[in-house]
Each structure stands twice: as structure tokens, then as C-alpha cells.
């Protein structure tokens, strides 16, 4: 209770005047004291400061959702709504008292301004706009003006990419905060996020990142304007409009100044301006607004909102009447209907509420329940249902909320999984139950449940901080951008560990595989050029060492990469080092080093090229030895011309060629020439000329790769390794590749050329008169069946080999179908060779 000689002091001025610091000093100089703040976050911040001065046992914190109340506490830090006005303190302070003009919470601040008094001293802190209200309502107050310590200047509009470090960007919705923070992550490495809905634990963790320099940017709602102390040099407004609970409106000049004033600390100057967003005109200050903010001149307040702070509670109707009573002072105006009054009036319409609310005690209990804040912003109707359920429990049995119900509601929220929005919503839900747990007579064991809600809020707060950091902070880019600005790219501390992890200032930015630097896949597209530049400019020595390691490695460390649809390349230790292009001959393609090796010095490049050429020549000679021997013979002038005429196109074709395409050359080859070809392993078959050794899987892969290189194409698909019969590919490029590999189409299938020759030999040897007779016969189907050749494929092969369908089976026609592909054989029902009746019906 204030004594007659109690001092009433009002300290007014713009932000950055040290008003809060002065109030803390004055409070701590008294034997006891209390300060009411506009935000839970600010109350917690000042509580931590006073604890460092007075110790934990002497300091209390009281907010709606948090209560730290040691038995010996003498200094209290609270929110304005939670100020215990029934306690006696030597000192009482009220921060941001100009909020009495706020339509939503103004009546609370006006009530505290009029009723909260210290026994020895009362201090009201606010802006100069509050001066006429104080003179009208508290004429005995001594008013002191505090000048701003530093200069606040307008800096105009700034693009996001050009924001100076230590900037705070202010937005007026969670969606806008998240959007700006995401863009800052992409362009500048990230930002801390501060919103009024965050728990103190999350907010402190986010601010700690900013204060420690882990990020250079802070994105916040207008909660930043309420005295939260951070090292900010520039404030950028993402918007100048906000939703005030009823409508979208432009900020008042006083609100603009309150937020802009966060720039600069003590005697260090600050700047403010707007954020220029790409594709949008963005916010813009009027010239008069800029002048008023810079000069700290604002229109004086003409009224404050008021509601009876001590309503009568003898009945529900009396309570409502007092809460709706109009003020009797000319500068006071009736407060708009707040949600607690709206809920009270809604519940008062319920007969069961009327029946249970009789007498002073129960009316006060109902009004206390209606004071449960709508933390989740659900609106009057849903919130009324929750309050009604709470009040029903408070008026039944022993008058406590059922512990199982309370525990069940907490259990629903006890989940740290989910995104930022999901976890933030759970924290809002926990705040509801924390508020309930801190009511002294709503639970049978309030201390137990207060501790449970505190632990749950802390877990969720830690998870929310983690999600915010994951979503809006790229530490790698933040470090890179900071070091680029401080040192320049050539001075960046780049390190590479034994696993190839590349780091800049201890932040991993990618991996070195072979000679290629792979940017971390989580890096945004806009970051990658910076990361590449930072790494590649500093990797010369490391790459030189790898070049020497490559030159000394054995052949088994190199492979030919033949991924379908990609250029043929050489890999070293699992990573690409070169690609192959058309060379002088099929067997000698040209090696082109990968561009990642451009950073090598010339001697190291030559060393790598020589080693790759040596490996390629050795491997071609080993894997394609038959083709190398044929190629050597084809250019040997000592060989007969007829033989070289056969071998040269065979080499160009990669070791297999259709006999029909070189029929004159085969016909001109004499017996000695055939023997010489046979000595080289060349087989002149019924349909093809080929070397059997080149039909194995690995030689086949290399032959297709060399053919693709020769024609300037990417690597085609290879037939399945070891397959004799394959399905006819649908795509023309694949059919061409299979043909090069040594497969020939037979209906809907392709058969390898050596198997075609084998079937051809069996068919001709099985004729009744192999010397030229034309009697019909039925071939043994066992081999064709074992090869997986379908009936229509076998029929086509028999036709190509010179047989014709006859009544008794197949008859020799006297010639091969060398010059044209055979027509598709008609379908044959029954066994693999069909019914002769079907052949006759089709005039075959």
C-alpha cells in the first residue's frame, strides 16, 4: 500500500534510452520491488538479470504460464496481467505504459497505471506520447524525459541480398516471418527467428545464435519492439501493415518508432528502413513518418482504454455490469469487449452455469476461469467450450480438475515430431495447461502438474529451436559468407580430411571424390557456385598429390564406365577422370580429361594422361586380343589382299559382320585365305563372319563402347551377360546395338550368331540327303528349345537357311536367303514346328 510520502515518477522517452535499466537499478536499491512487463519474454529476460544481482532465492517470476516463487522472494518480475496488486512492495514499476491505448490489452495497463503503487516509489515507463494522459490521471507524478543515447537514421529501401549484417527484419504474421527467414537462408546463410508465441526457452536459444554471431540476421514480429535487448544495427520493415485482431491496418507512427528504435545500442547509432522484396513494391514510409521517427516526435495520446479492475462479484449480472461500466474520466474510454468478458457473457447464458454460480466465492471462481487465455487463438466459441468444461470440473466434487483428464491432455501434446508450425501449436496448447497448473486451487497437486507442464514445454521448445535452426539456418553458408566478407576467397581456411570431406572454417561443404568436388547435396542452388569457388581455388596441392597417386596405381584401380545413355568414360577408384572420344582407329580412342582436372598443373596433367593411355592400350589388348590381332593382320602388307579385304571391314564392324554385306569378298577368298582367316579365329559362317571369342560378355561390352565412341554416341544398352536368346528391343538404337554385339533378329527374338551357325550346321547335317537332295524332313527341336527360341523364330531361321515348309516338314530349297530378310512365318498350332495343314492353308 502506498504511503502518503510515496514518490510517483514517470520516465518517458523513445527507445534506447535505458529506461528499463534505470527501473531495474531503482528496484534493486529498495528492500523489495515489482516490475510489470508487456511480454512474458521480457519478464523472463529481466528476471535472469535480477537473479544475477540478487540470487535465485530472492527473486520471483510470475506470468500466466510460469511461476517461480521462492518463499523468501522480495523482488518480483511479472507480466502486467499477473502483477499481484494485493502484495506490499517498496517499489513498483510498470513498463511500456503507453500500451493503455491498445484496444486489446489497454485496459490492463490503464488499471495498473491507476492502481499499482509502491510503498516508497512508483515508476511508470513509457513513450513521450503518454505525457498528457499522465498529467490528467496522475497529476502528482514527476515526469522525467530521457533522450535517446544514439542517433536513429532512415536508410531507405534495401534488397534482401544487400541487407547489412546485424539486421533485424520485422514482419507481422508467422507466414511472412517464415518466408523472409527462408529467403535469408538461401541468400545469406540463415536467420534467427523471434515471435511472441515462442516460449522463453526457444526465444533465448534463437537470440543466443544471433548474439553469438552464428547468424547475422534476425527475423521477428513486432514483439521485438517491446524492450527485448539485442545487438541490432539496422531494422528493416518487411511490411507496414498488421492485423490487429479486427482488421488489417497501417502501423501508427508510434508503433513504427517503437520497432525501429531497436536499432543501435547505448551510444552506437542505428538505422531503419524497408525491405525491398523481389516481384513486389514492398513497404514504403511517408516523408512525415520518417521525420517523426528520426526526431522522436509523435502525436500525444488523447485517451486510454479502461475497464473496472475491481468489479463486484456478488452475482454474475453485477460482475458483467461492472465490467461494462463506462469510465468517469474524460481521457478514459471503455475498452472493447475482451475475450474473457465475451466468454463470461456466453457462459452466463447457460442455465447450469447460473445454477452453480451463486455467492461471491463462485462468481470469483467463474471470472477466474474466464481469464484463461486463448493461447491457440481458436476464437470465442471454441474457447468458451474449453472454459465451460474447466468451470464444470471446478464446481463438482472437491472442486478440482480431474488428474486423468489433465494428464490425457498433456499426453496428446507430448510429441516432439513434426514441423515448425506443428510444434509451435503444441507449445501454445501446453501454455494453456501451464496456466491452469499455476492456479493455486484448480488442481489437487498443482506443483506436480506445473513441473510436468514446464518439462513438456522445455522439450517442445528444444525441438522447436532445432526445427527453426534446421529450416532457417545454413551454418555452412553463414560461415562462408562471413569469411568471404572478412578475408576474401583466397584466404578461406579450406581443409580436407582423410575421408575426402572438405571444410571451410570447420563447416563441411562437400566431399572430394577422385578429382571432383561434390557440393553437399543439402546446399541450395544459389549456394553451390560459392561453395565450388571456395573449394576449387584451394585444392591445387591436394589434386596434385592425387594425380601422382593415380599414376602409381595398378590397372585394377581403373574401370571403363559404360552406363547406358551416358558417354563412355574412364573411372579411377570409382570416380570419373576422363571420357573417350573418336580416335584414329576403332581400337585407339582419344582420352579427354574431365574438367575437374583442369585445376592440375601441366606436369600433373601429362602424368595422368600418360597413365590413362597406358591402361587403355593394355586393357584393349587384353580384353579384345582377338580383335587386336585381326586389326594387325588387316594392315600387314605381307598378308594377301583378299584376306585384308575381309579383315578390314570386320575390324570396323567390331568383330562381327553379316556375310551378305561382304559376300563378294568372301567369294573371292581362296582356300589359303580361308585357312589364314581361320588361324586368326575368324569364322566364316552361313550368315555371319565373326570371332567366337569376341561374343563373351566383357569383350562384347568393350566392342559396343568402342562403337559408340566411334559414332559419337552415348553408351547403348548391352544384351544381358551370357544370353543366347534375347527379346527384340522396341527401341531402334537398342536393336542396332544388339546387332553390333552379334545378335540377329528372328521374329520377336534375337539369337547370337554363333548359335545361329550351330543350328544351321545341325539342320543341314540332318537332311536325308545332305549332298543336295530335297526330301522333306523334321529337324530335332531339342536344341532350339534349349536355346529358348520360339517357334516363329525357328521357322524364320529355317527359311533364311534355305529351307521351305513342306507337307512332311522342311525341304531344302537349294539356296540361302542371303539377300533379303525372310517374311514372318505363319503361326503354327501344336508343337514348336506347327501343323502342316496351317502352312498349306496359307499357301506356304
UniProtKB/TrEMBL annotation:
Keyword Nucleotide-binding: yes
Pfam families for the chain: DEXQc_Suv3 (PF22527), Helicase_C (PF00271)
SUPFAM superfamilies: P-loop containing nucleoside triphosphate hydrolases
Residue ranges occupied by any Helicase C-terminal domain in the UniProt entry: 155-324
Gene3D superfamilies per UniProt: P-loop containing nucleotide triphosphate hydrolases
Keywords: ATP-binding, Helicase, Hydrolase, Nucleotide-binding
GO-annotated molecular function: helicase activity
Record-linked PANTHER family: ATP-DEPENDENT RNA AND DNA HELICASE, ATP-DEPENDENT RNA HELICASE SUPV3L1, MITOCHONDRIAL-RELATED
Protein name, UniProt field: Helicase-related protein
Amino acid at each position: 500500500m502506498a504511503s502518503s510520502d510515496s514518490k510517483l515518477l514517470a520516465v518517458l522517452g523513445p527507445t534506447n534510452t535505458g529506461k528499463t535499466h534505470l527501473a531495474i537499478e531503482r528496484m534493486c536499491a529498495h528492500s523489495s520491488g515489482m516490475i510489470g512487463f508487456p511480454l512474458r519474454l521480457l519478464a523472463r529476460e529481466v528476471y535472469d538479470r535480477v537473479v544475477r544481482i540478487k540470487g535465485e532465492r530472492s527473486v520471483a517470476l510470475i506470468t500466466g504460464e510460469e511461476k517461480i516463487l521462492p518463499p523468501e522472494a522480495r523482488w518480483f518480475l511479472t507480466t502486467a496481467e499477473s502483477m499481484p496488486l494485493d502484495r506490499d512492495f517498496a517499489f513498483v514499476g510498470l513498463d511500456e505504459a503507453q500500451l493503455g491505448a491498445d484496444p486489446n490489452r489497454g485496459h490492463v495497463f490503464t488499471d495498473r497505471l491507476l492502481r499499482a503503487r509502491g510503498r516508497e516509489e512508483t515508476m511508470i515507463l513509457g513513450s513521450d506520447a503518454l505525457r498528457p494522459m499522465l498529467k490528467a490521471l496522475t497529476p502528482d507524478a514527476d515526469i522525467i524525459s530521457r533522450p535517446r543515447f544514439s542517433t536513429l537514421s532512415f536508410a531507405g529501401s534495401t534488397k534482401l541480398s544487400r541487407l547489412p549484417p546485424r539486421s533485424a527484419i520485422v514482419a507481422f504474421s508467422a507466414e511472412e516471418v517464415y518466408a523472409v527467414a527462408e529467403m535469408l537462408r538461401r541468400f545469406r546463410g540463415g536467420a534467427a527467428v523471434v515471435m511472441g508465441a515462442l516460449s522463453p526457452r526457444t526465444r533465448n536459444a534463437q537470440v543466443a545464435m544471433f548474439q553469438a554471431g552464428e547468424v547475422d540476421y534476425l527475423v521477428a514480429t513486432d514483439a521485438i519492439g517491446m524492450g527485448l535487448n539485442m545487438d541490432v544495427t539496422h531494422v528493416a520493415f518487411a511490411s507496414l501493415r498488421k492485423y490487429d485482431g479486427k482488421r488489417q491496418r497501417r502501423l501508427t507512427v508510434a508503433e513504427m518508432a517503437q520497432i525501429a528504435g531497436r536499432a543501435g545500442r547505448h551510444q552506437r547509432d542505428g538505422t531503419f528502413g524497408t525491405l525491398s522484396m523481389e516481384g513486389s513494391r514492398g513497404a514504403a514510409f511517408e516523408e512525415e513518418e520518417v521525420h517523426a521517427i528520426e526526431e522522436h516526435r509523435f502525436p500525444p495520446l488523447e485517451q486510454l482504454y479502461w475497464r473496472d479492475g475491481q468489479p463486484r462479484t456478488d452475482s454474475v449480472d453485477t460482475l458483467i455490469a461492472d465490467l461494462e461500466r463506462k469510465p468517469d474520466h474524460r481521457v478514459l474510454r471503455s475498452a472493447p469487449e475482451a475475450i474473457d468478458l465475451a466468454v463470461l457473457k456466453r457462459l452466463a447464458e447457460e442455465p447450469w452455469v447460473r445454477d452453480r454460480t451463486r455467492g461471491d466465492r463462485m462468481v470469483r471462481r467463474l471470472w477466474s476461469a474466464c481469464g484463461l487465455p486463448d493461447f491457440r487463438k481458436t476464437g470465442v466459441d471454441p474457447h468458451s467450450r474449453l472454459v465451460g468444461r474447466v468451470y464444470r470440473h471446478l464446481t463438482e466434487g472437491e472442486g478440482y480438475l480431474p488428474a486423468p483428464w489433465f494428464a490425457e491432455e498433456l499426453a496428446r501434446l507430448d510429441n516432439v515430431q513434426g514441423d515448425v508450425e506443428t510444434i509451435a501449436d503444441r507449445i501454445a496448447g501446453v501454455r494453456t495447461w501451464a496456466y491452469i497448473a499455476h492456479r493455486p486451487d484448480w488442481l489437487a497437486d498443482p506443483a506436480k502438474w506445473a513441473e510436468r507442464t514446464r518439462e513438456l514445454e522445455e522439450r517442445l521448445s528444444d525441438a522447436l529451436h532445432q526445427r527453426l535452426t534446421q529450416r532457417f539456418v545454413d551454418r555452412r553458408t553463414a560461415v562462408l559468407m562471413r569469411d568471404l566478407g572478412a578475408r576474401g576467397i583466397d584466404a578461406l581456411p579450406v581443409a580436407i580430411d582423410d575421408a575426402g570431406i572438405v571444410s571451410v572454417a570447420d563447416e563441411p561443404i562437400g566431399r572430394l571424390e577422385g578429382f571432383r568436388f561434390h557440393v553437399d547435396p543439402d546446399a541450395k542452388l544459389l549456394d553451390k557456385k560459392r561453395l565450388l569457388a571456395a573449394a576449387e581455388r584451394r585444392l591445387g596441392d591436394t589434386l596434385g598429390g592425387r594425380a601422382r597417386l593415380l599414376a602409381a596405381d595398378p590397372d585394377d584401380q581403373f574401370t571403363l564406365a559404360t552406363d547406358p545413355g551416358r558417354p563412355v568414360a574412364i573411372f579411377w577408384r570409382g570416380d570419373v577422370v576422363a571420357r573417350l572420344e573418336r580416335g584414329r582407329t576403332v581400337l585407339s580412342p582419344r582420352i579427354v580429361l574431365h574438367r575437374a582436372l583442369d585445376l592440375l598443373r601441366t606436369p600433373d596433367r601429362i602424368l595422368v594422361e600418360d597413365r590413362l593411355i597406358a591402361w587403355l592400350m593394355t586393357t584393349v589388348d587384353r580384353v579384345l586380343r582377338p580383335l587386336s590381332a585381326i586389326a594387325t593382320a588387316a594392315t600387314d602388307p605381307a598378308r594377301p589382299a583378299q584376306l585384308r579385304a575381309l579383315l578390314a571391314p570386320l575390324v570396323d564392324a567390331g568383330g562381327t559382320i553379316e556375310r551378305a554385306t561382304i559376300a563378294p569378298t568372301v567369294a573371292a577368298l581362296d582356300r589359303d585365305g580361308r585357312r589364314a582367316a581361320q588361324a586368326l579365329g575368324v569364322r566364316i559362317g552361313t550368315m555371319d563372319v565373326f570371332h567366337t571369342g569376341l561374343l563373351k560378355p566383357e569383350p562384347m561390352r568393350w566392342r559396343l563402347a568402342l562403337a559408340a565412341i566411334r559414332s559419337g554416341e552415348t553408351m547403348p544398352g548391352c544384351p544381358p551377360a551370357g544370353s543366347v536368346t534375347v527379346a527384340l528391343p522396341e527401341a531402334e538404337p537398342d536393336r542396332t546395338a544388339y546387332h553390333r554385339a552379334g545378335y540377329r533378329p528372328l521374329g520377336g527374338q534375337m539369337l547370337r550368331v554363333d548359335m545361329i551357325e550351330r543350328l544351321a550346321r545341325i539342320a543341314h547335317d540332318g537332311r536325308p540327303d545332305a549332298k543336295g537332295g530335297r526330301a522333306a524332313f523334321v529337324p530335332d527341336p531339342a536344341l532350339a528349345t534349349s536355346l529358348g527360341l520360339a517357334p516363329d523364330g525357328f521357322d524364320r531361321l529355317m527359311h533364311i537357311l534355305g529351307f521351305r515348309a513342306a507337307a512332311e516338314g522342311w525341304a531344302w530349297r537349294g539356296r540361302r536367303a542371303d539377300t533379303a530378310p525372310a517374311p514372318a512365318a505363319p503361326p503354327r498350332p501344336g508343337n514348336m514346328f506347327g501343323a502342316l495343314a496351317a502352312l498349306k492353308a496359307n499357301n506356304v
